[in-house]
Structure formats: C-alpha cells, structure tokens
C-alpha cells in the first residue's frame, strides 16, 4: 500500500515537472519584442501595448527610443516584433506614394502594401491622428471668429505667423495651403525656434504657429486652438500597431489584445497623456501604466 502511494506520488511529481518544463518552453516562445519611436507619444503608446501583452500572459522585451528613420528597418530585419506606426508616415515616407487625404483609403493602401512587401500586418487603427496643422492663440481665434483654416485665410491680413524658417517655403506649408485655400496675406511671418512656439503664442508675440494635432500644449484649451483643416490639405496620420506576420501567426490572440487597447485611444486622450510627460514631467512608464489600469 505504501509502495503504491509512493508510486502515485512519483507519477504526480513527474506530471508537474513536465508541466513546468512545458510552461517554461511556452514562456520562452512567447517573448514579444515591442519597439517604439523616440518621442513621447510613441513611448507612451508602445508602453501601453506592452502592458496589455504582459497582462495577457506574454513576456515582453522592450526596445524603445528607436529613431524614426530606423524603426521600420528594425521591424523588417526581425529586431523587433511590433511597434505603433502612422498611416501618413507609412504612405509617404516608407512606400513613397502620392499624398492622399482620405483616412480610409490611406489605411487600406498601407495595410495591403505592407502585407505584400514586408510580411507585416496593420492591426486596427486607433483614433489618434497626429497630423500637421496650425495652432492659434485662443484669444485671437475668439476675436476674429476663427475655427478653421478657411476662417484663417479670410482674416490673414490681421494674423502674425511664427515659422521655423521652412513653413513659408515648403510644399506642405504656406505654398500648398495657398493652392487649396487661396492666398494668405499674413500681417507678418517671423522665424522662431520651433521649441518655443507655444511660449511665443502665450507671450502674444505671434498669433499662429505650425503645430501637430497631438501636441501636449493643446491640453490648454483656454490658451490654444488647433484649427480644423476643413479642406483636408494635410494627409491623415492615424496611429496603429503593426506586427510581423510570423509573430502574429504564432500568436493570433495578440490582435484581439492590441485591438481592444487601440479602441480606447483617441487624439484628445493622447494630448492629455503627452501633457503629463512633456509638461508635468512625469515618467512615460508611469503615465502609461496609470492609463492602462484605467481601461483594463
């Protein structure tokens, strides 16, 4: 009887031991390498995705702060497994396609091209659109009733513009805007350091500056207004996670995990999260974790 118990115990121990080995093997296979671009927004979103994957049982290796010019190559060369990319960047900088202002068309184009050329899948897009644009002092906007770029064009002779030295010459600056909206006879165009543009606006040294739709300082709605591009001059830059096909084939549930998170992210949310890092000087990991905990 004792021998039988010992034998049974040995069998149970062996099963547990094999299961442990199997679990270790699974853990090793399910290491997901998450990358990010080297600026606040990319870091925050990548960290949120990493936390979601860890919550789903994956081991995550973080490879953050990759230069924008190198991150696509890192994915294709199997140095990382996934990272969040912008549809406009993929269309214009990677695929070298013509500019298109229709968000759905751009998404379909990059999704199909990446699958064919790079064996990479675009998962569901977030509602984060980090595109070019114009930011105006709220006081000036209220004074002249300016909410759109069309409104700006009609009042351009009263508007002082701050430039970084290229906005008045580049095809995606005043020359291109003028073809779409009509001539802009601005009161003045002066060059300032790009990093000071919101300070310049706040100090009433200019009325309008080029900006991005997810800039952290846009959290101050009583001071700054991002103008609506009502004639859709600039292309959409919606953010979505992209992943190597071989990794997704081995771990198809990753799509559901990341798509659920992407559904919680929009432009207003990322402005607020960016502000917590860029203005409040909190660590991006802390901000990402706090947000992820709120949507779990």
Question: How would you explain this protein's 3D organization?
Answer:
This protein is an alpha/beta fold and 296 residues long. The protein is 48% helix and 17% strand. It contains 13 helices and 10 strands. The protein has helices at residues 2-29, 40-55, 71-76, 87-94, 103-118, 138-144, 149-154, 174-181, 197-202, 245-250, 253-262, 267-278, 284-295; strands at 31-37, 59-66, 82-86, 120-122, 132-137, 160-163, 188-191, 208-212, 224-226, 239-244. Strand 6 (160-163), helix 8 and strand 7 form a beta-alpha-beta unit. The radius of gyration is 24 Å and the shape is globular.
Main β-sheet description: 3 strands, antiparallel
Order of strands side by side in the largest beta sheet?
3-10-4
Q: Give me the secondary-structure category.
A: alpha/beta
**Relative strand content:** 15-25%
DSSP helix fraction: 40-55%
Q: Quaternary state, please? A: single chain
| Number of helices in the DSSP assignment | 13
Report the mean per-residue pLDDT as an integer.
91
Distance between the termini: 51 Å
Rounded radius of gyration (Å): 24 Å
Order of helices and strands: HEHEHEHHEEHHEHEHEEEHHHH
How many E-type strands?
Answer: 10
Low-confidence stretches: 1-27
Shape: globular
